[in-house]
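Translate sequence into structure tokens.
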Amino acid sequence: MARKGFGKSGMKKEKIALMAASGLVLTALTITGFYMRGQNEAEQDDGYTIDFQALEESVENKSQQIARNMQQEENIGENVARQEQDTSDVSYEKNKDIKPGKQPKNQPEKEPVVSGDESQGETLSEGEDPGEAPVGEGTADSAVETGTPQVVNSPELSFVESEGLTRPLEGEVILPFSMDSSIYFTTLDQYKYNPAMIIAAEPGTDVVACADGQVRKICNTRENGQTVIIDLGNGYSMTYGQLTDVSVTEGSYIGEGSLIAKVAEPSIYYSAEGANLYLHLEKDGAPVNPEALFKK
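Result follows.
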């Protein structure tokens, strides 16, 4: 593995140091050899004889080994320099086509940071109350254009029985409100109390609101099919059942006489009675006879 920061200047310094060290070693050994040779190749007490010729050959071999090591170091330095140059060239080729301000290919762009105010949509105008929406906008849905007046964003719902109710449609009452005595239900083939009134009507007949109110719930039940419950205020609510093509949405305000939906085909609970509107008025959860409040 190539050494980091290894360059030509470093190799030259190392080469000079190795050459200097080699020269010092060679000089020392040579001087020692001449001195010892001058002593007529004296023998030590243990009989060991110094072979000066072998010593000189060893010094020469050592110098050659040092020279070879220096050459290898120089070769290594040149290889490292070439690799660094090749790496630089490759990096340049990869990045030369990348223009400032643009992301490289295959790199996902960073998503912009959206502030809390920007994520909420349009900015409020100066002086505008964030708790109130303009008429026809905001929490209430746009009024359904039916040619009749509507209450949109009513500040307060306040129904009283003395104001009366508008008939939701014209038709014969086939099952009247009856909580004092039971009446006969043909489809069910039984007598029972009736907390609502059942008005006969052809499928597709328009159903309008009996009074101003806010749509509390839209649901679908097995007995009454598609159903809309409207809060009238003061604890009163009106339930419209057996509907189709509902024109209102939950939370929207509806004006008296405005279109709510159309009459649907009868559910299996009223198959014998035929198509009809199920109309159920309550006051604080107790059933009230709506027929008695219809305006003349």
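Note: The radius of gyration is 52 Å.
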